[in-house]
Amino acid sequence: MTLTADDGCETAAAERLEGQIRAAQYLRMSDAQQHYSIACQREINADYAARRGYVVVRTYVDEARSGVTIKGRDGLKALLGDVLDAPDYSAVLVTDVSRWGRFQDPDEAAHYEFLCRQAGVQVIYCAEVFDNDGGQASMILKSVKRVMAAEFSRQLSARTRAGMRRAQIMGECSGGPAAYGFAKEAYDPATGRTHVLVPGERKAHRGQTLRFVPGPTEEVAVVREIFRRYGRGGQSPLEIARHLNGKGTAYRGGTDWTSYRVRAILDNELVVGIQCFGKSHYQFGDRRRSRAREDWSRVRIFPPLVAPALFARASARRALQARRTYTDDALIEDLRRLIARHGRVTEGIVAAWGLVSPRLYGRRFGTLGTALRLAGQTAYVRAGRTWQAQDLTWDRVRPALERLLDERGYLSASVIDACPYVPRSKTLKTYFGSLPALFAAVGDPLTKRERISLAWVRRGRQNAAADRPAQRDQLVERPSIQPAWHPAFPQGSLAPALRPAAGGSASNVERAERPEAVAGQLASVPARRSPS
């Protein structure tokens, strides 16, 4: 959490001790796991201040914030803003150069320090070997320290990427729940024991590794049925979703199938036992860039659940559909079909049951609302909201949030999104900052931990209500999915992961149009490396 605050004790000390130099201090830690970093920096700065005649009157803190960019560092931004607006101190104490920042361009760190110096505020590094006297030797050492701080981040990033790639080559995975039809298995290298994780379960300790395995038998059967109906039966993802919902086959959590969920399964190469990684590239504050499908890295981790030839046929059809062009009249006619079925159509209905993505309507007609008006829907209000940009002021939003707090007794993102007279939670974050600070401003002082605890209590009450026969017809019964135990991974060759570059410069579509070529690529993907 980032904050900027006056310390009452330090201010009182400043009033008592005349003749001392008033100073602020800036503290930063990069990771939330560094529990004692802020306290250690405070101690170092306090010792330096006591020896040099400074008294700290203000503290700026950036907790769990990277130093490679100023983005997200509200503490440093507040410090620079105060410095440029007649501050009540003449120095800023920083533990060392790396706490000020690990900017990849050393001139950026120097620029922010120059802004302070130009405003009459000196930046003092308390634990560095050079003196803060502005001499030539000190300036040279400071510049070298800035380069060393930036290089540390570059080296750490390179080692992290290399370690993640080695782990992925051995079949390990990380982050997020497993896709439908699959589960995650925790493997302990010390004991050799494995355990399949149920939804919501985490690995026991950091020494364990995670890897994908086939999921529950019921889910695997549904995955195979989807490929049979799409690859052999010629059904569309929307028709398959309707068929599964019609026969009572629910998605995870008891929710309905949608065309998007069916397409996600059809595009997942795990169904043929191949794990893909390296799908995007991100480095040092630059935006994440997606890589072309042929540039992904692949490794085989278990036997296929679906025949490679059937997957190749489905991939070829998916590529042809991706190149299909719908006319404007066809898109409007599809919206008329949705209006006749659902009455009032929203963006979520179009995404779940529409012929194409809502984004395509935006590219063709300007907005989805314009397309719906052409289809005969006289009014389009996104998710029931009537808020305009000019209405998103604190004087108008605060009464709405206070009314919602009085009605519900608590606030959360889900409560806000379900309320028709309050802007979406995402909109509130964009205009007013973090939701916890916004909740506290309207009189809801619960912490994040308390909100999570209350959510579990409410969920327990809902489950208890579902067991009562009188209310069973009002609630959706969600079946409990218990994945079966699975054997360990089969031992494969020690060949490194290769990119299936068959076809050379051929595009994704060209390769996907040749099912036999795709099947040959799948057969050439190497097995994962053995963890032994």
Automatic annotation (TrEMBL):
Domain Resolvase/invertase-type recombinase catalytic residues, every copy: 22-171
SUPFAM superfamilies noted in UniProt: Resolvase-like
Region (Disordered) residue spans: 486-532
InterPro entries hit by this protein: DNA_bind_recomb_sf (IPR038109), DNA_bind_recombinase_dom (IPR011109), Resolv_N (IPR006119), Resolvase-like_N_sf (IPR036162), SSR_resolvase (IPR050639)
Pfam families the UniProt entry points to: Recombinase (PF07508), Resolvase (PF00239)
Protein name stated in the entry: Recombinase family protein
Organism: Brevundimonas staleyi
Lineage, uppermost ranks: Bacteria, Pseudomonadati, Pseudomonadota, Alphaproteobacteria, Caulobacterales
